[in-house]
Amino acid sequence: MARWDDFAESWNDLEEDQFMADGGKYRRRRFSEFLYDKATDSLQILKHAPFFQSMELNKLNGGIDRRFAPVTPYIATHPITAAMIRQHAGVFAKVTGHDHWAINFHQVRITALADMAGKPAPEGMHKDGVTYTTLLCIRRDNAEGAENLIYDNDKVPVFSTTLTRPGDIIIFEDDAYYHDVTPMTVANPTERAERDMLFIEFTRC
């Protein structure tokens, strides 16, 4: 439990996302990239670089290099980080037969106030442009909404759920599905709402 508490506490050290084309001040984040080779069990963090998505993938914030703060060395080398990457990549390797994976690791906090909704997916229904996406709930406090919606490639709804507890998770094949999240509002209007999430995206090398 102590390791998880320390891991989750790091979401209090995220930096404001300066690349919100809608002018929103509701998102904080850190981002880093890893490589993992299942055959050799080799996990390495890459030199920090901007995060880029095409306008086709992200109509709101795509088309530019977004320079987010990297995850801290503590999180980059944390046992939970390594365990999650290894476990998920191990499953994906069995499914696909591919051992080499490029990994995007996003720590994200969405906030909301009585007069300001938070938007977990301000770009709307979208794909991430990766092979597999993992959405993991770290913490949720005083929040209403933020329902995860999954659609097939014809944009027909196939699944929905609200991640409310630490460890609640959604995993999907990005090529086969679109996804979205509804806006988040406050349950108690006198207090801030927060939703801490970890997004780990796996792309076959």
Q: Mind explaining what this structure looks like?
A:
The chain is mainly beta and 205 residues long. The protein has one domain (2-204): Jelly Rolls (Sandwich), CATH 2.60.120.620. 15% of the residues lie in helices and 40% in strands. It has three helices and 14 strands. The strands form four sheets. Strands 1, 2, 3, 6, 7, 11 and 14 form a seven-stranded antiparallel β-sheet that branches. Strands 10-9-12 form a three-stranded antiparallel β-sheet, with no helix packed on it. The longest helix is centred in the middle third of the chain and has 18 residues, at 79-96. The N and C termini lie far apart (34 Å).
CATH evolutionary superfamily = q2cbj1_9rhob like domain
Residue fraction in strands:
35-45%
- Radius of gyration, Cα only, in angstroms? 16 Å
Oligomer: single chain
- Please give the CATH class: Mainly Beta
Order of helices and strands: HEEEEEHHEEEEEEEEE
Q: What are the low-pLDDT stretches, counting only 5+ consecutive residues below 50? A: none
| Mean pLDDT over the residues | 96
Based on secondary structure, the structural category is: mainly beta
- Compute the number of helices: 3
Number of domains: 1
Structure summary, number of beta strands? 14
Q: What is the terminal-to-terminal distance?
A: 34 Å
Shape: globular
Q: What CATH architecture label applies? A: Sandwich
Largest sheet: 7 strands, antiparallel
Instruction: Classify the helix fraction into a percent range.
Output: 10-25%
